Protein backbone atom coordinates (compact mmCIF):
# COMPACT_ATOMS: atom_id res chain seq x y z
CA UNK A 1 0.00 0.00 0.00
CA UNK A 2 1.56 3.28 -1.03
CA UNK A 3 1.99 6.35 1.19
CA UNK A 4 -0.79 8.28 -0.54
CA UNK A 5 -3.39 5.63 0.28
CA UNK A 6 -2.14 5.40 3.90
CA UNK A 7 -2.44 9.16 4.23
CA UNK A 8 -6.04 9.13 2.91
CA UNK A 9 -7.00 6.35 5.34
CA UNK A 10 -5.47 8.25 8.25
CA UNK A 11 -7.23 11.47 7.20
CA UNK A 12 -10.56 9.64 6.97
CA UNK A 13 -10.14 8.21 10.48
CA UNK A 14 -9.25 11.60 11.88
CA UNK A 15 -12.07 13.50 10.16
CA UNK A 16 -14.56 13.32 13.06
CA UNK A 17 -11.92 14.65 15.45
CA UNK A 18 -10.82 17.41 13.11
CA UNK A 19 -14.39 18.72 12.87
CA UNK A 20 -15.23 18.41 16.57
CA UNK A 21 -15.82 21.59 18.52
CA UNK A 22 -13.87 22.36 21.64
CA UNK A 23 -15.94 23.19 24.76
CA UNK A 24 -15.15 26.91 24.46
CA UNK A 25 -16.16 26.88 20.77
CA UNK A 26 -19.40 25.16 21.72
CA UNK A 27 -20.12 27.88 24.28
CA UNK A 28 -19.19 30.75 21.95
CA UNK A 29 -22.71 31.38 20.51
CA UNK A 30 -24.05 31.89 24.04
CA UNK A 31 -21.14 34.16 24.99
CA UNK A 32 -21.65 36.31 21.90
CA UNK A 33 -25.31 36.81 22.75
CA UNK A 34 -24.69 37.56 26.43
CA UNK A 35 -21.81 39.91 25.72
CA UNK A 36 -23.95 41.70 23.15
CA UNK A 37 -26.28 42.96 25.91
CA UNK A 38 -24.73 46.34 26.74
CA UNK A 39 -27.37 47.84 29.03
CA UNK A 40 -30.84 47.40 30.47
CA UNK A 41 -33.18 49.08 32.91
CA UNK A 42 -35.97 47.18 34.61
CA UNK A 43 -38.52 47.36 37.38
CA UNK A 44 -38.19 44.34 39.66
CA UNK A 45 -40.73 42.73 41.96
CA UNK A 46 -39.28 40.45 44.60
CA UNK A 47 -40.89 37.72 46.68
CA UNK A 48 -39.10 35.90 49.48
CA UNK A 49 -39.83 32.23 50.15
CA UNK A 50 -38.03 31.53 53.43
CA UNK A 51 -39.94 29.55 56.10
CA UNK A 52 -38.95 31.74 59.04
CA UNK A 53 -39.06 35.16 57.34
CA UNK A 54 -42.25 37.12 56.72
CA UNK A 55 -41.89 39.93 54.22
CA UNK A 56 -44.34 41.48 51.76
CA UNK A 57 -43.49 41.75 48.09
CA UNK A 58 -40.87 44.40 47.41
CA UNK A 59 -40.15 46.58 44.40
CA UNK A 60 -36.94 48.07 43.08
CA UNK A 61 -35.39 49.40 39.89
CA UNK A 62 -32.26 47.89 38.38
CA UNK A 63 -29.84 49.55 35.96
CA UNK A 64 -27.14 47.58 34.20
CA UNK A 65 -24.37 48.90 31.96
CA UNK A 66 -21.69 46.60 30.57
CA UNK A 67 -18.45 46.87 32.52
CA UNK A 68 -20.03 48.76 35.43
CA UNK A 69 -21.49 47.70 38.77
CA UNK A 70 -25.21 47.00 38.95
CA UNK A 71 -27.29 49.90 40.29
CA UNK A 72 -30.27 49.03 42.47
CA UNK A 73 -32.65 51.62 43.88
CA UNK A 74 -35.56 51.02 46.24
CA UNK A 75 -37.47 53.13 48.76
CA UNK A 76 -37.24 50.67 51.65
CA UNK A 77 -35.33 47.62 50.55
CA UNK A 78 -31.62 46.96 50.16
CA UNK A 79 -31.46 43.16 50.01
CA UNK A 80 -31.39 41.88 46.46
CA UNK A 81 -29.51 38.69 45.50
CA UNK A 82 -26.59 39.68 43.29
CA UNK A 83 -26.59 36.25 41.66
CA UNK A 84 -30.13 36.73 40.42
CA UNK A 85 -29.49 40.21 39.08
CA UNK A 86 -26.38 39.40 37.04
CA UNK A 87 -28.52 38.38 34.06
CA UNK A 88 -25.57 38.49 31.64
CA UNK A 89 -23.40 36.37 33.97
CA UNK A 90 -20.51 38.74 33.28
CA UNK A 91 -18.84 37.83 36.59
CA UNK A 92 -18.18 34.30 35.32
CA UNK A 93 -16.12 35.49 32.37
CA UNK A 94 -14.18 38.50 33.68
CA UNK A 95 -11.12 36.36 34.59
CA UNK A 96 -9.34 33.55 32.66
CA UNK A 97 -11.38 30.36 32.74
CA UNK A 98 -11.71 26.82 31.43
CA UNK A 99 -14.88 25.33 29.94
CA UNK A 100 -15.81 21.68 30.53
CA UNK A 101 -18.42 20.08 28.27
CA UNK A 102 -20.93 18.12 30.38
CA UNK A 103 -22.98 16.88 27.43
CA UNK A 104 -26.74 17.33 27.21
CA UNK A 105 -29.67 17.14 29.60
CA UNK A 106 -33.36 17.24 28.72
CA UNK A 107 -35.39 19.62 30.88
CA UNK A 108 -39.12 19.99 30.28
CA UNK A 109 -38.80 18.15 26.97
CA UNK A 110 -36.10 20.53 25.69
CA UNK A 111 -32.50 19.31 25.18
CA UNK A 112 -30.08 21.67 26.90
CA UNK A 113 -26.34 21.92 26.50
CA UNK A 114 -24.52 21.64 29.83
CA UNK A 115 -21.12 23.22 30.46
CA UNK A 116 -19.07 24.04 33.54
CA UNK A 117 -17.00 27.20 33.80
CA UNK A 118 -13.92 26.85 36.02
CA UNK A 119 -11.81 29.93 36.84
CA UNK A 120 -8.06 29.66 36.35
CA UNK A 121 -7.25 32.37 38.89
CA UNK A 122 -7.92 32.99 42.57
CA UNK A 123 -9.25 36.44 41.68
CA UNK A 124 -12.63 34.91 40.75
CA UNK A 125 -15.29 34.87 43.47
CA UNK A 126 -16.63 31.47 42.46
CA UNK A 127 -15.06 28.01 42.25
CA UNK A 128 -17.27 26.46 39.56
CA UNK A 129 -20.43 27.40 37.64
CA UNK A 130 -22.54 24.98 35.61
CA UNK A 131 -24.81 26.42 32.92
CA UNK A 132 -27.77 24.69 31.26
CA UNK A 133 -28.58 26.52 28.05
CA UNK A 134 -30.64 26.10 24.92
CA UNK A 135 -28.40 26.07 21.79
CA UNK A 136 -31.36 27.06 19.59
CA UNK A 137 -32.48 30.17 21.48
CA UNK A 138 -29.13 30.77 23.19
CA UNK A 139 -30.90 31.27 26.52
CA UNK A 140 -29.60 30.11 29.89
CA UNK A 141 -32.36 28.11 31.55
CA UNK A 142 -30.58 27.03 34.73
CA UNK A 143 -27.31 27.68 36.50
CA UNK A 144 -25.58 26.36 39.61
CA UNK A 145 -22.86 28.63 40.98
CA UNK A 146 -20.58 27.55 43.81
CA UNK A 147 -19.06 30.65 45.39
CA UNK A 148 -16.05 30.82 47.66
CA UNK A 149 -17.79 32.65 50.51
CA UNK A 150 -21.57 32.49 50.06
CA UNK A 151 -22.23 28.82 49.37
CA UNK A 152 -24.03 27.50 46.31
CA UNK A 153 -26.76 29.25 44.34
CA UNK A 154 -29.22 27.46 42.06
CA UNK A 155 -30.81 29.76 39.48
CA UNK A 156 -33.80 29.00 37.25
CA UNK A 157 -34.83 31.38 34.46
CA UNK A 158 -38.00 31.78 32.39
CA UNK A 159 -38.30 33.79 29.17
CA UNK A 160 -41.30 35.36 27.44
CA UNK A 161 -40.37 33.65 24.17
CA UNK A 162 -37.43 32.13 22.29
CA UNK A 163 -36.30 35.53 21.00
CA UNK A 164 -36.23 37.27 24.40
CA UNK A 165 -32.68 38.40 25.26
CA UNK A 166 -33.34 38.39 29.02
CA UNK A 167 -35.61 36.40 31.37
CA UNK A 168 -38.78 37.82 32.91
CA UNK A 169 -38.58 35.50 35.94
CA UNK A 170 -35.54 34.43 37.94
CA UNK A 171 -35.75 32.04 40.91
CA UNK A 172 -32.68 31.97 43.15
CA UNK A 173 -32.32 29.15 45.70
CA UNK A 174 -29.51 29.34 48.23
CA UNK A 175 -28.07 28.05 51.50
CA UNK A 176 -29.13 30.24 54.41
CA UNK A 177 -26.19 29.22 56.57
CA UNK A 178 -23.72 30.81 54.19
CA UNK A 179 -25.26 34.27 53.83
CA UNK A 180 -26.14 37.06 56.25
CA UNK A 181 -29.62 38.58 56.30
CA UNK A 182 -29.65 41.77 58.40
CA UNK A 183 -33.25 42.60 59.24
CA UNK A 184 -32.67 46.28 58.47
CA UNK A 185 -31.77 45.32 54.88
CA UNK A 186 -35.16 43.64 54.42
CA UNK A 187 -37.21 46.67 55.38
CA UNK A 188 -39.20 47.74 58.42
CA UNK A 189 -42.18 45.54 57.55
CA UNK A 190 -40.17 42.29 57.58
CA UNK A 191 -39.98 39.93 60.53
CA UNK A 192 -37.97 36.85 61.48
CA UNK A 193 -39.31 33.94 63.55
CA UNK A 194 -36.07 33.17 65.36
CA UNK A 195 -37.46 30.11 67.14
CA UNK A 196 -38.53 28.58 63.85
CA UNK A 197 -35.16 29.51 62.38
CA UNK A 198 -33.30 27.67 65.18
CA UNK A 199 -35.53 24.59 64.87
CA UNK A 200 -34.94 24.21 61.14
CA UNK A 201 -31.96 21.90 60.63
CA UNK A 202 -31.41 22.62 56.94
CA UNK A 203 -31.93 26.28 56.24
CA UNK A 204 -32.58 27.00 52.59
CA UNK A 205 -34.12 30.04 51.01
CA UNK A 206 -35.67 31.02 47.73
CA UNK A 207 -36.16 34.43 46.16
CA UNK A 208 -38.35 35.04 43.11
CA UNK A 209 -37.55 38.04 40.90
CA UNK A 210 -40.01 39.31 38.28
CA UNK A 211 -38.61 41.75 35.70
CA UNK A 212 -40.44 44.39 33.70
CA UNK A 213 -37.95 45.80 31.21
CA UNK A 214 -38.04 49.51 30.47
CA UNK A 215 -35.13 49.38 28.02
CA UNK A 216 -32.66 46.80 26.70
CA UNK A 217 -29.63 47.57 24.49
CA UNK A 218 -28.13 44.64 22.56
Q: Secondary-structure blueprint of this entry?
A:
Blueprint lengths: L2 H17 L3 H13 L3 E11 L3 E2 L3 E8 L5 E3 L8 H4 L11 E11 L2 E10 L6 E9 L4 E9 L4 E7 L10 E7 L7 H4 L4 E2 L1 H6 L4 E14 L1
Antiparallel strand pairs: 1-3, 1-12, 2-11, 3-4, 5-6, 6-7, 7-8, 8-9, 9-10, 10-12
Keywords:
single chain, 218 residues, alpha+beta, outer membrane lipoprotein receptor (LolB), chain A, 12 strands, 20% helix
Measured distance between first and last alpha carbons: 57 Å
| Total of helices | 5
Share of residues in strands: 35-45%
Overall strand count: 12
Give me the oligomer status. Answer: single chain
CATH topology, which one?
Answer: outer membrane lipoprotein receptor (LolB), chain A
Instruction: Using the CA coordinates, give the radius of gyration.
Output: 21 Å
Instruction: Give the CATH level 1 class.
Output: Mainly Beta
CATH architecture descriptor: Clam
Largest beta-sheet characterization: 10 strands, antiparallel
- Could you list the spans in which at least 5 consecutive residues all have pLDDT below 50? 5-12, 14-18
Q: What is the 3D shape?
A: globular
Amino acid sequence: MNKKILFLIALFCMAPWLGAQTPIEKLEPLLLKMQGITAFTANVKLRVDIPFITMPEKEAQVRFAKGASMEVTSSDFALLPKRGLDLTFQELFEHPYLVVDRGEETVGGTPLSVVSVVPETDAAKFSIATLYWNPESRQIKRATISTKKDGTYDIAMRYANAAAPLPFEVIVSFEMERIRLPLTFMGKDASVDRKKMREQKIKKGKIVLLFEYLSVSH
